[in-house]
Write the structure tokens for this entry.
Amino acid sequence: MTSTTRNGRTGRVLVRVAATVALVLAGTGAAYGVMGLSGATDAALRDRGSTPSPVSGKASTPGASPSQAPSQAPSQAPSESLSAALPSRSTAPSPTLVAVPEPVLEPGDTGVDVRELQSRLAQLAWFGVVTVPAYGPETRDAVSGFQAKRGFEATGVVDKRTWNRLVAMTREPTRTELFNRPGPTLLGPGAHGPQVRELEVRLRQIAWFFGDVDDTYDATTREAVSGFQGKRGVPTTGAVDQRTLSLLEAMSTEPNADELANRKPTLPDPSEGAPLDPRCATGAVLCIDKSSLSLRWVVDGRTKVTVDVRFGSAELPTREGQFSVYRKSRDHVSSLFNTSMPFAMFFSGGQAVHYSPDFAAHGYDGASHGCVNVRDYDAVASLFDQVPVGTPVVVYRS
């Protein structure tokens, strides 16, 4: 009698526990958990003689006498009640499990890992060369731009997929880059030779050096280098390390013979227009000349359309070289600067040819963030319809 009462209580407790779990799991839509519990509980109730009790955790003694064993009725009743309390397998909704990538780095994080992220982004021109230990808005915007360029969801949060792609495209930053320390000196005060002359020409191109260039790294050269470094936020040493040289080369062009010899270049006849780059002579090309501030749509060496353009500032220069239109967006809005970029034709990272209402209103009293601004709305709208994705783009100085 005592055994029957204990087992009967155990059955009732199981029914209440199972019913409660069923209600909780049904409320969360986890029907698959309920079904598993039902099967396990029915099996436990049918085989109490060798199965631990879910309540006490103790097993019934095998080989109990028939007078001590529970009757069939008490063991069946809880099983039937439990089955009635649970939804049927055929009507249970299927759970939807969504995998959410865990962030590797996200806004608010600090430390050397954030510096490494910024340094790798800087290698791809998505971030400045000066790293900081905090994941702020500038880092978030850079990550968003990198993600959008790769076709990822532009969350501004670095998940494993974003990090793996970034690492695959960049090299391990040096401690000099991570902590903004000066690197080994490549050129410094007292140096002499043609490399110094080229350095001065490049500095003169972006208005940090004035007057004639020569082969001597003197006080004037040192002051020009220091000013350039201070403007970019790198250690102001007055000597050229690799980071300073890389920055300078990215913002200037290879010196020509006239610049090296302090000769004024021969200007083209305005009636003939600036000379075309040889890379613009074949096929259909967007030919963009920084010297004449013009963009020309050239087909088989013949200019079809010419428009005035302006470029990026010294801090955010328009890249020079040969590219191609890889994306077009008629009504584009910049995710980085929240500005309108109608008729955008992207050719290098986030840099694009597009209409600029600011250029139309203020002319050359300003600059872009690296894009090629066009102020003639009708002309760029027409170009947008004529220029297919894949069209070569040449940005140069005539």
